Amino acid sequence: xxxxxxxxxxxxxxxxxxxxxxxxxxxxxxxxxxxxxxxxxxxxxxxxxxxxxxxxxxxxxxxxxxxxxxxxxxxxxxxxxxxxxxxxxxxxxxxxxxxxxxxxxxxxxxxxxxxxxxxxxxxxxxxxxxxxxxxxxxxxxxxxxxxxxxxxxxxxxxxxxxxxxxxxxxxxxxxxxxxxxxxxxxxxxxxxxxxxxxxxxxxxxxxxxxxxxxxxxxxxxxxxxxxxxxxxxxxxxxxxxxxxxxxxxxxxxxxxxxxxxxxxxxxxxxxxxxxxxxxxxxxxxxxxxxxxxxxxxxxxxxxxxxxxxxxxxxxxxxxxxxxxxxxxxxxxxxxxxxxxxxxxxxxxxxxxxxxxxxxxxxxxxxxxxxxxxxxxxxxxxxxxxxxxxxxxxx
Length: 394
Fold this sequence. Notes:
Elements: H1 2-8, E1 13-18, E2 23-26, H2 28-33, H3 38-41, H4 46-49, H5 54-67, E3 69-75, E4 83-92, E5 99-107, H6 110-123, E6 130-134, E7 140-143, H7 145-149, H8 160-167, H9 171-182, E8 184-189, E9 201-209, E10 215-224, H10 229-240, E11 243-244, H11 247-255, H12 259-263, E12 266-271, H13 283-301, E13 307-312, E14 315-320, H14 325-341, E15 349-354, H15 361-377, E16 383-386
Parallel strand pairs: 11-13, 15-16
Antiparallel strand pairs: 1-2, 1-5, 3-4, 4-5, 6-7, 6-10, 8-9, 9-10, 12-14, 12-15, 13-14
C-alpha cells in the first residue's frame, strides 16, 4: 500500500479496481477528471464510472481477457471536463488467482501533448542539431537554442508551411499526405529562411497524433546539406530513433508494419528501476530523471529501424522489426553491457518476446511482461526471453 500511495502522489489520474470491475481506490486527480468526488468512486463499477454502454464495456473486458490491456478515450467536454485517454492493465496477484485492474488517465489537450513532445526536443538539446516543434498550420511552437541561432530577425514571420511552399508550390500538402500515411518525411530545402550560409538544409519531420489519428504537432530536425558523411550517419541515427511518449503512437506504428515484418519482429521490455529508488516519495522524481538519462543514451546506441516508447515510469519498450529471437537477445545483452559501462545498469532487467503473424502488440507486451518477471526471479541472469512461436510437430 506504500507503493500505491507513492504512485498516486503525482499529477496523473490513477484507479485500482478488483477483477469484478469494482473500484478499490482512486486518487483525487482521477476523481477530478471523471467529475466525481473521491469517496463517490469507492466501490463504484468501472462501467458506470467510465460511462460505457453494455456493448462497449463488453469489448473492454474481452480485450483485457485476451491481451491483458485496453486503451481508449472518454470525452467529457460536453460535461465541462476534458477528453481523457485511458490505459487499463491487468496486474496478477500471486497469492490468489485473482487480479487487479490498474487504470491511468491522461488529459488529451493540445497543451499536454505539446509539453510531452517538447521533451523529445530536450533529448537532442545537448548536440548541434537544430530542432523545432510546429503546429500543423506551420506555426512555430517551440525550438531548441541551435534552431533559434539560425532564425531570421523577424522570428514571428517564420512558418514551416511557407518554407515548403516557397521551395516548391504545393509541397506542403504532399508532405502532410506522407506524414498522415507514414508519420515521417525526409528531404532537402535549398531556399529556407533559416540562415545557413546558402548551404541549404536536410530536414527530417515526424508527426505526432492524437488518439483519433489526427496530427496535432510536427517535430522537425535540420542538418546542413553538406554535412560530412560520418557526421551525417551518426545524427541520422539519432533522428530516426525518436521516442514515442504516447503508447497510441507505438500501436499505430506496429499496425502499419508489413505482415512479413511482424512475423520477424521482437519486442523488448526494459525495467530500469534501481533497487530501492521507489521506497520513498522522492524516488519518483529520481526515477524520472534517471529514465530521461537512459533514454538519451539509448537513442545514441540503438540500431537504426528500432523504435523506443515509454511503457510507464521506470519501463521502456523497444520494438525491433525484422529481428529474430536470437538476434534480439544479442541486442539486449549489448544494451545491458553498454549501460553497465556507463554506470547505469543498477537494477536493470529485460524481458523479450518474439512476434508471429497472429500477434497483436498488446499480446506481445503481455509476453514481455511474463519474461520480465522471470528475469527478476533468476538472480544474476537479468535477461529472459519468452519463446512464443508456434511449434510444429511431425
